[in-house]
Queue: 4 jobs
Job 1
Amino acid sequence: MKSKKVSESKTTMTQMVMPNDTNPLGNLMGGNLLRWMDIAAGICAGKHSERYVVTASVDHVSFKLPIHMGEVVTMVASVTRAFSTSMEIYVEVFSTDIKGGNTRRCNHAYYTFVALDDERQKPVPVPEVQPLTSEEEYLYNEAMKRRELRLILSGRIKPQQAQELRNYINGIVD
Ligand SMILES: CC(C)(COP(=O)(O)OP(=O)(O)OC[C@H]1O[C@@H](n2cnc3c(N)ncnc32)[C@H](O)[C@@H]1OP(=O)(O)O)[C@@H](O)C(=O)NCCC(=O)NCCS
């Protein structure tokens, strides 16, 4: 299967925070933001794999800055690395006022999506990612450690199987 560039599936999605998106403080509710991020990441994963995809996991979510009603929120989703049937998608969230000013980077997270066959039943292989820029290469190289960590935490592998993570930790401890 031919590898694909990150730029081929990069996805940008914009929303305005409406009153029914907010919590009692008048800020965007975290669950609504996660939903928008999931949609942007799912479109990105679908474009990369050219398949139906499902969300397998979400990690490293932090809500660094509140986003206020009336602000314009932009989600930028990029594939960092593909494994066998799964892909890691990095989503960054930016907020601006309606005039496009006061841009703030509010949030980021890593989503894992799995590609499914045409019957939407079984996982199927996905194209590899071809990182080109230095940032793409950095995210690609770090992705294996994040994958091993999430697979340990979800009970899918044992810590002894996480070779890259073990090498990394041994390197810090030495
Ligand atoms: C995701 C799903 C397809 C995986 O099915 P499965 O039978 O466990 O399939 P496999 O064991 O073959 O794993 C498939 C891939 O998913 C990855 N995966 C499964 N669970 C994962 C998790 N919690 N975190 C990260 N990756 C995960 C595996 O590592 C594997 O990746 P790889 O092929 O690149 O190595 C299945 O669990 C599912 O359909 N979940 C519900 C998805 C959904 O409905 N999401 C919407 C939110 S409600």
Job 2
Amino acid sequence: MLVLGIESSCDETAAAVVEDGRRALSDVVSSQVAVHARYGGVVPEVASRQHLLSIVPVVEQALQKAEVTMDHIDAVAVTHGPGLVGALMVGVNAAKAIAYARKLPLIGVHHLEAHAYAAWLAYDDPGRDPGFPLVILIASGAHTDLIVMRGHGDYQLVGRTRDDASGEAFDKAARILGLGFPGGPAIQKSAGQRRGEKPMPRAWLHDSLDFSFSGLKTHLLHEAQARGIYPPGDAPADAEAVAQLAGAFQEAVVDVLATKAVQAVERHGARGLVLGGGVSANARLREECARRSPVPVLIPAPRLCTDNGSMVGAAGYYRYMRGIAHGASLDAAPSLAIA
Ligand SMILES: Nc1ncnc2c1ncn2[C@@H]1O[C@H](COP(=O)(O)OP(=O)(O)OP(=O)(O)O)[C@@H](O)[C@H]1O
Ligand SMILES: [Mg+2]
């Protein structure tokens, strides 16, 4: 079964053709990063306009690269929330139009569920699946959630951020350190092998599986001010001092994410740990989760961690297999909850 997956919830316009939920025949992503970089973050109005320009060529390319035509497609899956409402609407309306014109089933997909399903694409041998329950750590630009997945479509949210998302924290930290946008890759690059001379505080929140990153961000701001890194002056900042702060910041975020993910695995008797979302592209997070987890860790390739269409196609396939299909009433749902 071939599913066309469409994603437009934030700043990537993406489409892919996915076979049986596990194999991407194509995966086309048109990133708007360069357009938003000059503003230091994603500007919603600009994002919607870019999606409008890109959506048709991106879908056409996805079909071409998969060497199929619309005649071969069995269903259309689209992210309908959560995300930026104007951005979501572009993908949802494109998917609706295709489904209506081709008389295909239309499946709305939750964006975080899609991030989780990137693991099904990355590990496409069903014989080696660890089995349920799984703990899913979604660490992305707008979310940091721990989810227990007891089966396809069966989710329980067991931890979430109480303030900033981890990706948002990386982005803000990079801005403080003058490292540019998006912040995660910039912090990782600046830190290199450094873990920081002075450790930064971790918000453990007692034995809760929730997260908090805003205190860490404020701590970084004070350290950057004390070293004359922030606000930026006329002379360039001392690159080694910046790298030390980047390293200490990265370690603090990674330590909290990995510790709580492993705690969730232990508390809920999970048979595997799945990482998803842009922050799971972070090399130190991947390393620490793999090192500390008592169960197999499934981490998609960095390219599949950030937004893409194939994860939507995969999640859509498993929804369809459970008999879920939406009609023309499918709408963008900017605050859609997963559980
Ligand atoms: N190597 C990295 N280390 C840390 N963070 C990273 C890395 N690569 C990307 N990120 C972060 O990932 C985030 C983008 O991830 P993603 O595209 O999944 O988020 P989003 O789609 O904007 O948000 P959401 O999925 O919550 O709606 C950014 O905040 C970026 O800084
Ligand atoms: Mg995302």
Job 3
Amino acid sequence: MKVKILGAGREVGRAAIAVEYRSRAVILDYGVNFDEKDLPQLPLHYPPAKLLGIVVTHGHLDHIGGAPIFYISRNPKAYATPFTRDVARIMLSDFLKLSGYYLPFEEEEVSLFLESTRTLGYGEPVELGSFRVRLRDAGHIPGSAMIEVEAGSHKLLYTGDVNLYDTNLVGPADLSGLEADTLIIESTYGASSHPDRRGVEEAFYNDVREVVENGGTVLVPSFSLGRGQEIMCVLVSRGFEHPIYVDGMVRRITELMLEHGSFIRRLDVLEKAWSTVNVVRDWQDRRNAWKEPGVIIASAGMLKGGPARYYLKKLAKDKRNAVFLVSFQAPGTPGRMILESGRYAENGPLVQARVEWFDFSSHAGREQLLSIVKSVKGLERVIVVHGEPEIAEAFASTVKEELGVEAIAPSNGEEIEVS
Ligand SMILES: [Zn+2]
Ligand SMILES: [Zn+2]
């Protein structure tokens, strides 16, 4: 068996891994990244003729955004959990709307990809030529999966994005009875530990209340798939009494989550949250939302676009207001700029509103990643991906030193013989 890194080699995102056996292959994820100019960057090319199938871990664009490129027909078959397949439709159509001009595929390829996607439940095996594939709950967002691949006598496990925290939306990854010769593991937070989750939630809740009770409005820029819903649940489950507005794609995705209730850890909490919040449907609603003290949960999570941009401009000037960032802020994004310089545009005005960052990560931290490695029986080799170069490298060294298992952090294009 051979592994070829097509994307996510020493970088966060653009996940894409080819697993080859007897000159046929399956691809695990085929995502996209965005460069400084916000142009989409696809993984390395792979010859479609060798492909037996594409298996995707979850609906975030950095794992599915490039997959339609393989679909000029209904071949090869793709596999995903039912929630991932359905949410992919929303994510990809939004992606086409925003970046379509720069993409090597169009609506037709997206449709063919979705029509070619078979759904797989956790634990349900599927045979693709000599490959046997199974999905396992990854605990990252609803529907997220790790992928187990077997061919000949070799077993490989790919984590995709993985988390061990118990949240409202999802429980921890399923690590029971893991066995593999090769582990491909993400390392987004491979060099740091997250603070206690309950403590973060409590601090967030108290700070939001403080701002609102002093007459301010809190903007919470959030990704529409995962974080936005989690924030709603955190506020409502703790009895928040003030208005909460939600704006952006989060609406369609929440409705889809409620349809796929079996993928939601605390469905009752999400249902209650959804019946409590005010959904922004048009410009009239949008103009009203920021005029009273309350919370606005709006995309995009790093303030690169979406309705969050509009609210930011309206709320930034008043120091009674606040901007509470709740996700990873990539270098160069407006979210990161506010944290570093207090401005969201170069030479722009200083933001007067209070700005804070809360560690609501949906990725395992260093200790948790190590415990995942430890939980795999029979492990011979660890391949570290989906991390900044120094972080992926550091995590690979930690695995070698602390666990005595061979570990590398390969670059895109590298091929690794694993059996
Ligand atoms: Zn990812
Ligand atoms: Zn993800």
Job 4
Amino acid sequence: MIIRDATPDDAAQACAVLRASIIDLCVADHRNDPGILSRWLANKTPENVAAWACAEGASLLVAVEGDAISAVGGLTHPGEITLNYVSPQARFRGVSSALLAELERRAAAHGACDVALLSTETAHRFYLARGYVDVGVPAGKFGTAASYPMSKALALAS
Ligand SMILES: CC(C)(COP(=O)(O)OP(=O)(O)OC[C@H]1O[C@@H](n2cnc3c(N)ncnc32)[C@H](O)[C@@H]1OP(=O)(O)O)[C@@H](O)C(=O)NCCC(=O)NCCS
């Protein structure tokens, strides 16, 4: 597996990964509620993903195995993780851990001292196990019961 910057050519496949990850893996969050799913998925279009790949002040990363994209990660510089979605077929094989580590490296390279994100219920345990702490009151997003504001201090390079 390699992790690299996404290009607009990745948009269709990366978008499909984002949508499958939300629909199939985040059931604890959306509970198959059509309204929540429709709000969550509304901006996950190939056109938007292509634009995110070219956006100033942000990084869109893909984890790639062979010809297949297995996960998509997003960072708004310097240190806000906006996307971290693994394909259902690639779950629990270390892909998100590797992608998260690269997002953190990118954040550090952009001068961030810490990284912030809003975790799903689905991924909350994953982030806790990777050094993130809750930093605010959980609040619903897209109509979900709880999203968790989390943060992690980055180790300073010596
Ligand atoms: C939870 C999730 C993020 C983990 O990604 P992954 O690529 O499958 O994870 P990895 O293989 O890198 O690491 C496995 C970790 O998942 C977590 N995990 C294991 N089983 C789990 C389960 N049944 N449910 C939730 N998390 C689990 C553990 O923290 C595990 O870490 P450990 O090996 O140190 O115990 C992913 O499976 C997922 O469901 N993503 C859905 C999209 C999402 O919610 N993204 C976050 C947006 S903020």
